[in-house]
Amino acid sequence: MADPRAAADVPGGTNPVDAFGRPLGSLRISLTDQCNLRCRYCMPEAEYAWLPRRDLLTFDEIVRLAEAFVSLGVDRVRLTGGEPLLRAGAADLVRRLADLTGVADLAMTTNGVLLARHAESLRDAGLRRVTVSLDTLRPDRFRTISQRGTHHEVLAGIAAAAAAGLGGMKIDTVVMRGVNDDELVDLLEFGRTVPAEVRFIEYMDVGGATGWSPKLVYTREEILATLAAHYGPIAAPARTGPAPADRFVLPDGSVFGIVSSTTQPFCASCDRSRLTADGIWLRCLYAMSGMDLRTPLRAGAGPAELRDLIAGVWRQRRDRGAEDRLGTRSPDKVFVSLQSLKRDPHLEMHTRGG
């Protein structure tokens, strides 16, 4: 069913919908393509091609583009990376985005390594929510997955965010068979203590997942079976809204989520798009290319011109990338080859944002 906001879409209107009736509702803004971890499901290679620093959007440019998107109906903005807290002055940008009329939800996804030193300033600037990536509770396993020894910093960041009062915290865990699939219960129990809602994510073959294999995918159904064996019957409320995670309820009322883009895509309700740190607008996580918004912005395009450009492209959107990938996935071939990644860093997951 199309979103009710679709009724507002008329030529020149402020709430465009795409070819499948999906509104423009959520924007993920990458602040940098740099990251201080090297997670094997995202950045497993030894060397990377980075975006030229001169191409990165300034905070003024990010705000101008955000204003254009918000004027078209975007009401949820999420700051991502790479690792967004590697970008100096991130709290200043948060403050400016929080002041935009129409932004109902301003959040950030972070790996948590630098969160302890920034949690209070982010809260004071107006950040409403934070999602922290945490794939294991075991320091040795964390080092294996992330190729870094900063597990204690991540746990400290989660504690600091909770102490700072950043509400509605979520913990994202990429589940990989034979790697961390034995920690599902432990992670849920840890989430209770934070408190935070844990979301289990199927291992996806997007961007730089050059080590992806279908054998490593621990599916939604397997996650549910594992948890039901421990907790008992799990309820599945009807899916509501465009959120990427389906939410489930344990017998005691505790809630957790599963993002099952690999085996059960949610393309039909997806209203999110991504803006890379250098101003490339991607309408789908699986998109092989996007629209350059930096060039018209720096050429002097005004608010009306930017709105018309964005709205016109969104109305033509037909992306159903995860569904298309489900039908064409090969067990012995990754989505993007290493050679292609070296030629175009925009294909990397750490460039387009989680």
Report the portion of residues in β strands.
Answer: 5-15%
Helix coverage percent: 25-40%
Rg calculated over all Cα atoms: 19 Å
Please give the CATH architecture. Answer: Alpha-Beta Barrel
**Class from helix and strand fractions:** alpha/beta
Q: Largest beta sheet: what is the strand line-up? A: 7-8-6-5-4-3-2-1-9-10-11
Which helices and strands, and how do they pair?
Blueprint: E1 26-30, H1 59-71, E2 76-80, H2 90-98, E3 105-110, H3 115-125, E4 129-133, H4 139-146, H5 151-164, E5 170-175, H6 184-193, E6 197-202, H7 220-231, E7 246-249, E8 255-259, E9 272-275, E10 280-282, E11 291-292, H8 294-298, H9 303-315, H10 321-328, H11 338-343, H12 349-352
Helix pairs in contact: 1-9, 2-3, 3-5
Walk me through this protein's architecture.
It is built from 12 helices and 11 strands. The chain has 354 residues and is α/β, with parallel strands linked by helices. The chain has one domain: Aldolase class I (TIM Barrel, Alpha-Beta Barrel), CATH 3.20.20.70. α1 (59-71) packs across α9.
What's the short version?
Helix content is 32%, strand content 14%.
Structural descriptors:
single chain; 354 residues; alpha/beta; TIM Barrel
